[in-house]
Amino acid sequence: MRLRLPEERPTEPPTGYKIAHPVLSHDGTRAGFTGVSLGGALPYGVLDEARCVYGRRHRSPHRRCDCGFHCVHESAVAEAMLCTAEHRAAVLLEVSVLGAYIRFERGFRYARQRVRGATVGPCDCGAVAAALADAGWGRPGWRVLTAACAGCVRGRTSLSLASFARLAGEGLRVRAATGPVAVTGSLGVSELVAEAALLQARLDWFQSQLTRLQEPGTQG
Ligand SMILES: [Zn+2]
Ligand SMILES: [Zn+2]
């Protein structure tokens, strides 16, 4: 006789929270996320299916493996993970838990996931994030992005929060932790103002670089 756990049949997918690093494909055509610990080697899209991180041929989540997407029930628990030094640059995700799942006291391990929202913390300098910019590291084929304000983006590869949301697709909402909400789809006034500020900051930076190069006696 096999002992089975009670099966749940929720009327709508459970909500969970997790932290992850935003990623941009090397050709700039796709955006997604990558985990901070187990599964960090497998970037995922906004709507995606878990694969076994050990390459075993079973469906995730498998009872005798720890693969699958992971999340916690409480946003405060996920937010607390952002305090550690190595997770400071990660973003907070709100997800829908889809497909088969295993429920734990603190969260779920599960088969499919829709990322509904991402909250981006402040830039390194403390200002509200206007963009997600190249963090200087990544996974094969993917650049990891980190929060940047308009002043700190400089010449780095970057996307405004709204552009990241559009590229990631599936109706993803991206917002700065303490700033205006950047919504996907058609841009509102606040998103256009944010886009303009970002463009202006980048123009200023390029202009200053040009001026520096044109000054006599400076080396390029
Ligand atoms: Zn597995
Ligand atoms: Zn900054």
Number of domains: 1
Strand content of the residues, in percent? 25-35%
**Termini distance?**
76 Å
Continuous helix count: 4
What is the averaged pLDDT score? 89
Q: What's the alpha carbon Rg, rounded to whole Å?
A: 20 Å
Q: What small-molecule ligands were found?
A: zinc ion
Shape: elongated
Q: Summarize the amount of helix as a percent range.
A: 10-25%
Q: What is the subunit organization of this protein? A: single chain
Order of helices and strands: EEEEHEEEEHEHEEH
Contiguous runs where pLDDT drops below 50 for at least 5 residues? 179-184
How many β-strand runs?
A: 11
The largest sheet is: 11 strands, mixed
Class derived from helix and strand content? alpha+beta
Q: Mind sketching the topology for me?
A:
Blueprint lengths: L14 E11 L5 E5 L11 E3 L19 E4 L2 H7 L9 E13 L3 E14 L10 E9 L2 E7 L1 H4 L4 E3 H8 L4 E4 L4 E2 L6 H26 L6
Parallel strand pairs: 6-10
Antiparallel strand pairs: 1-2, 1-5, 1-8, 3-6, 4-6, 5-6, 7-8, 7-9, 10-11
The protein binds zinc ion (2 copies).
